[in-house]
Write a structure and sequence with these properties.
2 copies of one chain form a homodimer. Helix content of chain A is 72%, strand content 1%. Chain A is an all-alpha fold. Chain A has one domain: Farnesyl Diphosphate Synthase (Orthogonal Bundle). Chain A has a two-stranded antiparallel ribbon with strand order 1-2. In chain A, strand 1 and strand 2 form a beta hairpin. Chains A, B: Belongs to the FPP/GGPP synthase family. Chains A, B: Pfam families: polyprenyl_synt. Chains A, B: Its EC number is 2.5.1.10.
Chain lengths: 298, 298
């Protein structure tokens, strides 16, 4: 196992136990609890919480319970968004990561409510965290901004509106900056907030995460184009069929690969520009490799 | 006009302009904005924000911008819950307050997302409010707790689960304590938090609001039984048809009326027990009258 893999294997259970502990102690209804936990434990890669932790470590600090709680809240927001996106009224997906989606197992009503509860719970978890009140507020505000009508939700609306309509590269990038980019930016910037970085550093972290977010989406589109249903554990070529805008459709495969490479290079360069005392981006650089196409679907 | 009506007419626009201002400045997409504003302006009675303001005034304080913002956030949470509850996957209501429901006008996908955006926006609005950070956190935590998997969302799940199943009075009351009671309790208790009341007073406010919340639901059930579709602006006798548990079905009309009266008497008695210096519950007592059956559908 690589250093990153060992670290992940050690750290992720701490994030997951925060999520599970929260749901167990904050949910009045057994079926609702089951539905929430089903999607939390449906086998995601936990890219977002790992970015929180890797950023905190890059600034020479050790992750604390509060770090795990912020990472947990972020993963709850991400999970809610997947549950709602998969609904028949939205993307109508039956499978995600090789498992039946929430509404297939629990019905549409409970899936909507499990999503609502995970979103609400994420804010409750942050509000309960033992951090200085002003830092907690800053994180809460940033999380809401990233997830809301100027962030992820707006991205999802753009996505729906752009079906059967051709977007330019710039428009597609703007869509993904909101739809997937906003939470990835929160992941990295929250690591900076948790370690008390100044505005200038937070702004660089935001730039870094912006490139990472775009790379994430370009890679996802490329893998979707390349992989088969079995390998991905979800329907593929579906984006094509639904007339969705993807980077390979827009740019062709080769230019999409180059665009991915360019985003990752820019991300690396920003990390290099942050090389002051105590800054050790080893884990972040390792994580960038996860966004390379050659790593395949892991 | 009564004193309450004059006060309402003066104060409600201040809450509404906070909501509208927030949505206008925090929403990236025009159609999403339109969908959110449609449901916000669909003609609700604004009971919850009025309770926040009336409680603040009862403690001898004047409502400030921060009060209006907390009241606005609460109404946003309430509105999100109505949009999601009306969805075909949930209660499948085409009409609310005499107007087409959100998903009828904007489609299911945008209705789900407008709800998500209003919920997320409510937390963003509280986080942005210029209050002391610890008070803001207390309100945020309380709002999330009231709205989430131990509060309103759990109540909605119980409601779905109890269809075609007979509940006892205690079970029905427990359901409504979560489904509608939780936000009404937040309304009153947040007024106490905003005016720096101690734990003992907050606990009494919580009791007061608990009785008010039950009265609210019993009255709603009674009106549904009595009124016609035209008068109510939504389908009635529908609860009956769907095999839903209501107080009139469970207790009969007369006992349900007595139960409503008993809840309001207990609410009044708690207000009397709070009669220390500077406490002036005039507006709250006027608001209790809104929960009486004789006031009809206003």
């Amino acid at each position: 196992m690589s250093g990153l893999q060992i670290w992940q294997k050690n750290e992720l259970p701490k994030v997951e136990s925060q999520i599970e502990g929260f749901i167990h102690t904050h949910t009045a209804n057994e079926q609702l609890k089951e539905s929430m936990l089903y999607s939390i434990n449906a086998g995601g890669k936990r890219i977002r919480p790992l970015l929180v932790l890797a950023t905190v470590e890059a600034f020479g600090q050790t992750a604390t319970q509060q770090t795990y709680q912020i990472a947990a809240a972020l993963e709850m927001v991400h999970t809610y968004s997947l549950i709602h996106d998969d609904l028949p009224a939205m993307d109508n997906d039956d499978l995600r990561r090789g498992k039946a989606t929430n509404h297939i197992v629990f019905g549409d009503a409970l899936a909507i409510l499990a999503g609502d509860a995970l979103l609400t719970g994420a804010f409750e978890l942050v509000a309960e965290t033992e951090l200085a009140a002003d830092k907690k507020n800053q994180l809460l505000q940033l999380l809401a901004k990233s997830a809301g009508a100027n962030g992820m939700v707006a991205g999802q609306v753009y996505d729906i509106q752009s079906e059967q309509k051709s977007l330019t590269f710039t428009e597609l990038a703007a869509l993904h900056q909101k739809k997937t980019g906003a939470l990835i930016r929160f992941a990295v910037v929250s690591g900076g907030v948790l370690t008390d970085q100044d505005e200038q550093v937070l702004s660089k972290l935001d730039d870094f995460a912006t490139h990472l977010g775009l790379a994430f989406q370009i890679r996802d589109d490329l893998l979707d184009e390349l992989a088969t249903t079995e390998q991905m554990g979800k329907k593929t070529k579906k984006d094509d069929a639904a007339g969705k805008n993807t980077y390979p459709v827009l740019l062709g495969m080769e230019k999409a690969k180059s665009a991915l490479c360019a985003e990752l290079t820019q991300a690396r360069n920003i990390l290099k520009s942050l090389s002051f005392n105590d800054f050790n981006p080893t884990l972040l650089l390792e994580m960038i490799k996860l966004f390379e196409l050659e790593r395949g679907n892991q």
